[in-house]
Amino acid sequence: MALTGLEIYKNLPKTNCGDCNFPTCMAFAMQLAAKRVSLDQCPHVSEEAKAKLDEASAPPMRLVRIGKSEHELKIGQETVLFRHQEKFYHPSLVAIKVREDVPENKLDQEIRDINNLKFTRVGEEIGVDLLALEHTSGEPESFAKVVKRVMDSSALPLILLSENPRAMQAALKVSAEDNPLLYAANQENWEEMADLAKEHRCPLVVKGQTLEDLADLTQKIKNRGTEDMVLDLDSGDLAEALGSFTKMRRLALEKNFRPLGYPTIVFTHEKSPFQEVAEATTYISKYGGIVVMEGKEKWQLLPLLTVRQNIYTDPQVPNTVEAKLYEIRSPGADSPVLVTTNFSLTYFTVEGEVESSKVPSFISVVDTEGLGVLNAYAGDKWSAEKVIKTLEKQKVKEKVNHNKIIIPGLVAVFRAEIEEESPWQAIIGPEEASRIPSFLRKEWKT
User: Do residues 374 and 388 make contact, with C-beta atoms less than 8 angstroms apart?
Assistant: First the structure.
């Protein structure tokens, strides 16, 4: 039975030392009761208290770590079914599958291509997280050799795909220190795979045909000494998998059903590269902890990673950039000044288009509390008066030898008031950011 914050507090040291990163023991107890932190975050709790509180206060979904040091990845420990209820904490991980039997020169090229699947979007680098290496030869030593070759070529953490305990044992001899994810324990091999995971302290995928199979296996494996697990419900049907993932999430979070309180892994099955991206996107939306796919083209990965980036933001915190004067391509005194909002997607879209125009420019960012152009205008978060004050605060007049600013075409209504209330001449810019390069190259004059 779940404990209240007060019941948990009675078993804590009550020192208010702050070592748990909360100001008081009561604050920490309340977070434990809400299952947003784990008990091991308090370094001073007694063994007796641990015995009483550990299971009851643990988050409903276990946090699982894959990889080591700066390459460590985390999945699980989610607390809500829907993003608007709070937020999702650990983004789904995207893995690309490669085969052991690929010729060495082709394998090396594949690994290089996967290493380069990185993009910068709205100021954040996004990319592939894991390599899933599939054992195909049947020879344990051959698998271990290829694992070592891949590790030497890539810093991405590994998923070792083999249900053969002998092959997994050979692979772990060269990779265990990097904490790979072991795939997979099933009804036939679970004892050997659980022992390997326990011996090498690596997370283990548990594979089952039904939710009942998974619940039964996770309990057996946990009792054998392995607790870091990831669940694979072996289903090739998208609709069925989506329904099952939702059931698992509800059972873990709402019913506190511990045997299914683990993150998930899912493999795409669609052969069409377009349909595979759509399938992977569905799993990222609900509720794939790790999505393993075959496609490795940039045009496939960018939209998928973009969806993930959008989902795994805090809906209660506006996505903003600092409201200041930005300099693009080392602008000079005769460079244009563009005005925009501090919503990060708006700013980085404008910045990208200005950069591609190759016209050195200033971008004056107005604090609109994280709202885009039209939303900020409709919500009275920016105005001609606010633009004027921002230009003064940023001392833009000291940077340029002209009195012209470019305002978004969507707020052309600002023009008259800006020109009446300040020395600035407001030029109506494009309504769409994609037209900025052409506008700057053809229409900008000091």
Answer: no
What does the pLDDT read at residue 34? 76
Q: How confident is the model at residue 180 (pLDDT cuts 50, 70, 90)?
A: very high
* E strand or H helix at 185: strand 181-185
- 12 lies in the same domain as 107: no
Q: Are residues 256 and 148 in the same domain?
A: yes
Domain carrying residue 18: 5-57
Q: What is the C-alpha separation between 397 and 268, in angstroms, rounded?
A: 56
Do residues 167 and 306 both lie within one domain? yes
Query: In this structure, what token pair is assigned to residue 104?
Result: 């060495």
Query: What pairs with residue 338 in β-bridges?
Result: 363, 406
Asked whether residue 236 carries a pLDDT value surpassing 80, the answer given is: no
Q: How far apart are CA 118 and CA 229, in angstroms?
A: 28
Residue 1, pLDDT score: 47
DSSP H or E stretch at residue 344: helix 344-357
* Domain contains 215: yes
CB 25 within 8 A of CB 12: yes
What predicted TM-score, i.e. pTM, was given to this entire model? 0.81
| Number of domains into which the chain is organized | 3
